């Protein structure tokens, strides 16, 4: 079982500037990053036996982390909207 923290900076090193920018300007992105960090910390604490959880709870937390990570990645890789120049 891995007990390596999956920080967003480590997961998406090529998108660090965009992560910082979106956290500042996009409330939804900021919230899902906060949710990701919270569930990631809970998983790390469970894996290191600081706060053990049942196997089914661990599975649910990992699924939630993956869902959030997928949503974050989708937001990081979507094309930028370009304003029309009149």
Task: Please describe the topology of this protein.
Elements: H1 8-11, H2 16-25, H3 27-47, H4 55-77
Task: Write a concise synopsis of the structure shown.
The protein is mainly alpha-helical. It has four helices and no strands. It starts with 7 loop residues before the first helix and ends in a 9-residue tail after the last helix.
Give a description of the structure.
The mean pLDDT is 91. The chain starts with 7 loop residues before the first helix and ends in a 9-residue tail after the last helix. The protein contains 4 helices and no strands. It has helices at residues 8-11, 16-25, 27-47, 55-77. The radius of gyration is 15 Å and the shape is elongated. The chain is mostly helical and 86 residues long. Helix 2 (16-25) packs across helix 3 and helix 3 packs antiparallel against helix 4.
Oligomer: single chain
Residues in β-strands, percent: under 5%
Whole-number average pLDDT? 91
How would you classify the helix and strand content by structural class? mainly alpha
Keywords for this entry:
single chain, 86 residues, mainly alpha, 4 helices
């Amino acid at each position: 079982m891995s007990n390596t923290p999956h920080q967003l900076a480590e997961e998406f090193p090529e998108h660090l500037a965009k992560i910082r920018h979106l956290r500042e300007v996009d409330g939804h992105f900021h919230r899902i990053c906060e949710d990701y960090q919270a569930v990631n910390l809970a998983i790390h604490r469970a894996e290191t036996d600081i706060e053990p959880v049942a196997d089914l709870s661990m599975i649910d937390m990992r699924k939630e982390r993956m869902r959030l990570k997928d949503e974050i990645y989708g937001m990081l890789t979507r094309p930028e909207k370009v304003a029309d120049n009149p």
